[in-house]
Amino acid sequence: MGQGAAPAALADDFGTNDGVNTGPFADDSSHDYCWGPGFDAALKDNANTAMSTLDIQTDMSDFYQATCDVVGTDIWWFDADLPAGVRGSYHCVTWVTYGSVCNSSDVKLDPAEINIGSDDELDTTKSACHEVGHSVGLAHSSTGDDCMRNGEIPNTNVQYRQYNTHHRGHINARY
Amino acid sequence: MLATRRWLGPRLVLMGIVLAGCGGNAPGSVPRDTSIGQSFAALLQTGIYIDYEVVESPAELRDLADLVIIGTISDVVEGRVLPYGRAEAQANLVIDVERVIRGIAPRSGPVYVEVTLPSGLLVSELASAAPNGRLVLFLGDRTYLRGTTGETGRPEGSAIYAPFAQGMVIEADQMWISGLVDGEELPPGWQKLESFDQLVATIED
């Protein structure tokens, strides 16, 4: 599934995992996810929305797994108390190829940090979308016009909970 | 020049690390002090990426932090495991404090700073890459958190801190490197500061 995406001007980093806030590649186009032990039920809608966004907007597909698998599930979702100012994190746990292709990762959201400021529910979905983006290789947004921007959303526009054309182009060219 | 070294360096260094199977050296064209800092930053960011609240300047970050210190890394040791996710093993940076900018550091002895240990990386490999120059650390107190392994990696009863996302600044060949996030994406309030000493001057009272 996916929206048409123009793969033009793909000059930023993608999948390089090179210390410039760019995640490694996922292992394939099927992005499986599960709820890690203790994952806050209040965050599941946000995580589901983020996974669906990847499915709907790109050529990748999402698939919920009721049971988490150590290597077979691409994303295990957790809530966490992260360091000050950190709203969400992506962490590759098992590698297909060290440093470049990730097999299974943990994604964590910190509601206490996300809920600073306004539009907390939308901010949560934005952070979930952001970490899913890292899990497929996206870098932070240099234009700041989609969910790969850092921090608080500037307004409630849906674009901040989605991937922009540029990022969709990266994903669709790879998967 | 600064921006190029700050973000291009880690890219080259990480390629070397990956090719060497985790633990490679920096390309010879990069000055030694700079390459060490870049290796360390690249290792810390291997497979770990975050969404963080961007702070506009070092002075603003100083005001948010519980503790701001200038010091050097004397050791890197195994830290505690936090009760989040599958891979929250921490490594503790043991910091010899040269100067306290904000907050209260121990009267004697080091400050313990934990960072998430990337999966597949050994503490000894991180220790080998530790820079020997100065760092500025903008820290939040994390002593209140209970690890699943107690107070591993620090003396009983001592405090443990974690850096803000922008809170690790590594001195490198008189310039500086952002340790935990890409220096290139930092706001102008950071980018305009070309030298380590210049950055320090902006956070001194």
Q: If you had to describe this structure to a student in words, what would you say it looks like?
A:
The complex is a heterodimer of chains A (175) and B (205). By secondary structure, chain A is α/β, with parallel strands linked by helices. Chain A has a single domain, classed as 3-Layer(aba) Sandwich (Collagenase (Catalytic Domain)). Chain A contains four helices and six strands; from the N terminus they run E-E-H-E-E-E-E-H-H-H. In chain A, strands 1, 2, 3, 4, 5 and 6 form a six-stranded mixed β-sheet that branches. In chain A, helix 1 links the parallel strand 2 and strand 3. The longest helix of chain A is centred in the C-terminal third of the chain and has 16 residues, at 120-135. Chain A is globular and about 40 Å long. The N and C termini of chain A lie close together (12 Å). In chain A, 56% of the residues are buried. Chain B starts with a helix and ends with a helix. Chain B is built from six helices and seven strands. Chain B has helices at 2-19, 32-44, 58-64, 123-129, 188-191, 196-203, and strands spanning 48-52, 67-81, 89-102, 111-116, 134-141, 160-172, 175-178. With 205 residues, chain B is an alpha+beta fold. A five-stranded mixed β-barrel of chain B has the order 2-3-4-6-5, surrounded by four helices. Chain B has one domain. Chain B is 28% helix and 32% strand. At the A-B interface, strand 4, strand 5, strand 6 and helix 3 of A face helix 1, helix 2, strand 1 and strand 6 of B. Strand 5 (86-97) of chain A pairs antiparallel with strand 1 (48-52) of chain B.
